[in-house]
Automatic annotation (TrEMBL):
Keywords, alphabetical: Signal
Keyword Signal on entry: yes
Species of origin: Candidatus Faecivivens stercoripullorum
Superkingdom as given in the UniProt entry: Bacteria
Phylogenetic classification of the source organism: Bacteria, Bacillati, Bacillota, Clostridia, Eubacteriales
One Gene Ontology molecular-function label: FMN binding
Residue ranges constituting the FMN-binding domain according to the UniProt record: 92-182
Keyword flag Repressor: no
Residues in the signal sequence: 1-35
Protein name: FMN-binding protein
GO cellular component: membrane
Amino acid sequence: MATSKTRKRFSWLISLIVMLAASAALIFASDRVTAAVYGPYQESQPVPTVASMTEMDISGYAADDYQVEMVQTCLDESGAVVGYAVDTWEYGFNSEKPIHLRSTISTDGKLLISVEVLEQHESDYYGDQIGEDWYPDRFDGRLLPVLSSSESGRGSHIDGISGATYTSNAVLRAINNASRFVTEQLS
């Protein structure tokens, strides 16, 4: 009888080890697949240095369709075009005064070089955080499009500001409008 009990215990221990090994393999494989598919979107990419900018004439483009106010060509030190600084606007929580952003996008429209909040009138202690230095820095070097961390899909997932969902989503829409303008109108 002691051997039967020992066998049951040993059998249970073997089953536990097999289940733990299978779980570890599944987790490891899942992380590798996620890293292969989404890896570049989660990490910041190297960005080109912008040495100077010159304003473009956008009168011949459908700028209003993208809520674009102004575009500047971004040049590196050698004079090569490395991107476009696109000024856009979007309404956030404050439905009377829009947020004005400058999104600097690579020439192919795939890389977000930087974001600058030009003007905002969002609510105190929540949405107005987009005007602080730390907020726009989270976008530097992200692959486009940018998505809210709560959205599914391929793109760089960005955490919104807690309690400021309308503002956070407005910033993402403005950046993606700038990106679409570059890829659909300028490329």
